Structures
1.
Amino acid sequence: MNKPVNQKAWLMILPVLVCVAFSAILPLMTVVNYSVQDIIDPERRVFVGTEWFASVMRDPELHEALLRQLGFSLAVLLVEIPLGVLLALSMPAEGWKASAVLVIVALSLLIPWNVVGTIWQIYGRADIGLLGASLSAMGVDYNYTGNATDAWLTVLVMDVWHWTPLVALLGYAGLRAIPDAYYQAARIDGASKFAVFRYIQLPKMRGVLMIAVLLRFMDSFMIYTEPFVLTGGGPGNATTFLSQFLTQKAVGQFDLGPAAAFSLIYFLIILLLCFILYNGMQALGTTDKTEAAHG
């Protein structure tokens, strides 16, 4: 005789489902609705099908913003992941020093995004900012408000300063989860520090590093507040990333139809690239395991 199924568990997750519906599903459906209509005024709407999607995909400014965004996100991953791993490896493993370093490392993560932009806005000024004044004193012509390269590099360095500690903390957690038996076996075999990192630490950190890569990619691909406060997207369009391009469409020009279509395309681009990153890292992990087994 089959036992009756207890349906009370659904009552426990019902509040979560309701919150998700109101915070994600319903707004998404609203955006889908706007993306297929031409909103002439609050009372007049015309169904246009995929016209806005085709229009957005042909926009050369979108292509430029996408390439700019991809370059920035790739630079963020290439800098922050190795730097975060190095920082995690150099942090104390135990004692009061470990606690103190953890708190110090995490300080930048506590600062709100708009405040980060304001800090670097002042920090980079040649008249009162430490960075700008120091570079000017060394004879470097640095001007993040007038030079496109300086602006892009300043936004990159600002993001590295703000978010590398997240990678370091995730890597540190992965390192602390490695049993001491692995290190004892490595010492017995006379393994070098690089060998310990290559065959013990890096494989054991792969899970948390995958989380770090996905989090940093998604967050950098949606960056808005920091460059908006720091440079306003300029000079020109040097730091106008996809999120700011979308905001200009929706708020600045009030083109709700094209903005809604672009937001869906934006969402699908992030999903696709995260899928590629995840499967690429999974495939790399499988290859490493195979090499280690044959070795």
2.
Amino acid sequence: MTQAEAAALCGVGTRFLSELERGKATAELGKALRVLRGLGLELAVTPRGGSVR
């Protein structure tokens, strides 16, 4: 899949997707979550230095 195809699938621009891939610290969380959802991925959040109970 090309970057342009992935961006279109996720409903974001190629510039945003490129910046997200490079780890841009100011990436919009909502758009980042849209990319995860569009690619069929899930985000799990755990406490820093801890484990989920």
3.
Amino acid sequence: MFESLQEKLEFSLKKFRGQATITAENTEEAMQDIRRALLDADVNYQVAKEFVETVKQKALGTEVKGKLTPDQLIVKLVHEELKETMGNKNSELHFASHPPTIILVAGLQGSGKTTFCAKLAKNLRKKGRQPLLVACDIHRPAAILQLKQLGEQIKIPVFSEENKTAVDISSNSISYAKKFARDVIIVDTAGRLTIDEEMMKEVEDIAKAINPTETLFVCDAMIGQDAVNTAKAFNDSLSLTGVVLTKLDGDTRGGAALSVLKVVGKPIKFVGIGEKVDDIEPFHPERIASRILGMGDILTLVERAEREMDEKKASELEEKIKKNQYTFDDFLDHIDTIKKMGSIRDLVGMIPGMDKVMRNSKAEIDNSAFVKVEAIIHSMTKKERTNPKIINGSRRQRIARGSGSSIQEVNKLLKQFEEMQKIMKNVALGKKSRIFQSFQRMMG
């Protein structure tokens, strides 16, 4: 995410490297580049203008002290302003003091609204809530069917009624929720191709009837300023409490994320990072700002890992690593966990400095990189996966034929696995001084 913006900002900030002081001249040149980078990323013109002016004024009014260099100071100021532009800290959902909490979800057709409702329901259940999904898109039968299928998939009830208006369905869902002790109601409303009076009137009537605790607008981050303008139109009619950006894992330029708060006046509360029902995260401005500047996002990476890792299994695995009993079966489990965490390209972007390394190497990284590895491992016998040392020449030929690989590819995987075993054992035993040497050997 934000690859293009990150690259352009990095180029702009290079203007200060090697400079002894911050002057009006070098600041003006860099700020022009930053403004162009923001506009290219589809950031609202006024937001980009204010952003650049604020950073410029702070830069010229700040004395470079101690070991801090001009380029480090500018990066710090840009990072702070990015956070400020996006809201400084994450904005959490509000819950009613007397249940049920009612969350009204609105948006255009194709924005991922119905899927978001299911994602939010599953996310809230993990936190101990008992959500109820409500199907109020009576204009598109496929939307009701989609919500029911998603509800069945995540084992969360869906309330719907035939031959009733959307207002009646939403109102009746409250009695149903109270009767069956559901403390959060998530109302999926009709999405249309464009904003029209009929759609806005219906969703306004629903809001008046159920008096929602939260009113969230779901928009596609990939359409940039159009998403922000549409959110503003909905806010004028509905008084939104927050915005949800979907498809943030796609080829988004970042304009919507950087413009929503300033233009609409409402915070981004959640982001969609994939198509699975687990692919939803709270929006953290400080983390996104760090990623835009190539500083990574270790906190989100750790949170995703913790979400997918079974604590008991992790403890057992640590013991196996210490005893040098880590096998190819354990490796397959690890691959499965990594794939659940999201796209490899996205995960690499969370490691500080790795985005730049990958750009410089021109390497393409995606989850398909695991396909060949998994094929080779699955072509091994149970005994070979447990003890790779027994894999001799004839076994390597058989594994290569079975996986559609070359003997060289099989040899490479076996060598890398051996090096990985050493690294993991060193980490488990706390021998950090050897880790980097082993890593270098493994990477060739």
4.
Amino acid sequence: MKQIAVDVVAQIMGKVFSSLFGLLAITQICRYLTVEDFGGYTLAFSLLAFFYPVVDMGLNTIAAREASRDPGKVHSLLSEVICLKVILAVVGFFLILGLVNMLGYPLAIRHLILVASFSLFNTVLGSFEVILIVSHRLFWLALSQVFSSIVFLVFIYGVMALGMRTSALIAVQIFSVTLSYVIVLLATRGSFRPTMPTRPGLAAIFKQSLPQGIASLVTAYYFNIDVIMLSKLMDESAVAYYGSACRLLAFMIFIPHAMMMSLFPLLTRARLQGKKDFSAIFTFSFYLLMLIAIPVAVWATLYSQQIIELVYTSTYHPAVSAFRLLVWAGVGIFASHLAGYTLVVADRQKYGMLISAFALVANVSLNFWLIPAYGIDGAAVATVITEFAVAGLGFALLVYFERLFPFSWKLTRVLLITLVTLLLAEVLREMNWLVASGLFVVFLGSVVAYFSLKQDRAIFAHI
């Protein structure tokens, strides 16, 4: 239990600090670039998001699952994963070149995308995270993320001092991430003995990961397709406004990712030990995620204008309404993270692929209908509907196949904390909103720590 708590706290705190530095970096970038240039910057990385899953292909998730079941296999698994990712990174790089030419973007945008495409090779280095996940040494992963965000911020000031433009900002972002993996490599030194990949081994892990990889790929499509559609149906200003709201959402949804990275090996072992333990960890995880997601969404909704204007200045005021909607997509993302990881633990990742395919069709259809009528707000509504549908379908499959029910009496605490959040916002309305938000963070952190680390720790005691 203690190690699990350390992992969760390390990941969340690491993400908090790296997100703060990242938020400051984005603040400087959007002030330095014009709205149109920031739109190009956003578009480049949104397009790249379609290709990161091509390289990862679910390999890290499956390798972590298999290594949690049999730690002795981690060396051969990781060797096979690295070999496959090198091949996939090269394939992905050339696919990007073909797609950019096919979409017919201006030469300046194509240049930005080409520079950003080198970040695909960082995904290969990300393979070493598997060792840290399985051995519960996520502190080093958190440290690497904080280091990367600090380096990126320092480099941004350097780029601005030299008067360089968008492509230089993209290059230093990629380089800072590469440096972060140096820490990961140092942390895994001595823990990994490379082996020679075999053709049967490569085929076996690729076959297992393919459904998860396709699901991740399709998820990336439906989560980023709205930016691409906005670039074609509207203009780069719309991309900048919507992208600014999406970036803030990304700072919210690091929490479920961090928590599930820590809980994934625990869920895997609980699955092996029996249905009762598996169900208890699953139900508790859902409750804990909702205990964080819903109050945060309420608070972000109430202070959406202040958040946008603090980060992006009043120039980005058109993004306020989209952000106010997107924070509720975050609640769906919290839930869908749990459903997706649990389907993998239960060896039912192929259903995740089907859910993602449905979500892609639904999201594209909704965007075609809503963007022309409502602009970036329509894209936000499409995202909210899609994310809740994904979570709902995932939980429906887990109920049907595994008899796992996410709901429990503990969710009454979530309702209570949400009501207290509204009351707190009303009481602190006249106070400086940054101070009020700091008090809210202290309040919510204390609540989560009390319930998850004190009252409910017995759940993990025998796992």
